[in-house]
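Q: My labmate handed me this sequence with no annotations at all. I'd like to see what the chain might look like in three dimensions before we decide whether it's worth expressing. Could you predict it?
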Amino acid sequence: AGEGSASTPGDGGGPPAPERVLFPPTFSVSEIKNKQRRHFMFLRWKQQQRKEKLALKKKRRKEREALGDKAPPKAVPKTIENQRVYDETTVDPNDEEVAFDEATDEFAPYFNRQTVPKILITTSDRPRGRTVRFCEQLATVIPNSHVYYRRGLALKRIIPQCIARDFTDLIVINEDRKIPNGLVLSHLPDGPTAHFRMSSVRLRKEIKRKGKEPTEHVPEVILNNFTTRLGHSIGRMFAALFPHDPQFIGRQVATFHNQRDYIFFRFHRYIFKSEKKVGIQELGPRFTLKLRSLQKGTFDSKFGEYEWIHKRREMDTSRRKFHL
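A: Here is what I predict for the chain of 324 residues:
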């Protein structure tokens, strides 16, 4: 064959076999210009990463089984939570100052069983269907709550009417582009008022493997990871929405779980499968809250005195610094 021939020895002079392209070690998937090809190569790379990780995990497990009792202790993985920067306002349950504040704050009558929660749930002006359904489902979660759809009525006029009718709390659901995106919680008659950003709202019909409709039993309340003075106040606000004496026969639980300053709300029913096994069914709705401000007194956007305001550029400089 001549110098320009593409045939190889032993192939009978047929067309050459395609050569296998090897990417250089410094090659990045992001350098691929074709979007579909780039996405395909990224998925292959992720699949390979998972296989290598699983193989390493199996290898380590076999080594630990072979060593038996002589195996070294498992390493604790580093997470943002266990590397959290210490907050000087972290609450000590045995602190006398904290106990005095709890005995004299705005929620003390509730925890002393002197008042029974009565909640008014309202919306922004002219709510759309999704927000209306969310308010209706929220009213089935919080006992003794009433839904009122305001039409152009200012909150400053609603609050005196709520106080006159013995409501203890006011919840306002705001929306943007037909989607609930904010929650204002005001404790009556003297505050405080918390403003949250709301996201990841899921109604009951949107939750997979959901349980049957909730009953009218008073649910239990679980508050997780509200450790600072600010978080303690927010946790007491949520607790004051529910009657103090839950009806355990209903087996319903409302959970406010704080993780990295995001508050995840879930509503479950637990089922005893045996003496040792317990299953749970999510009833819904579910949503996520992010605290934006805490204001003294009732809602006053112009002249209100704020205890805490979330300032992103000043407060979010470290990923390991949390405020709740």
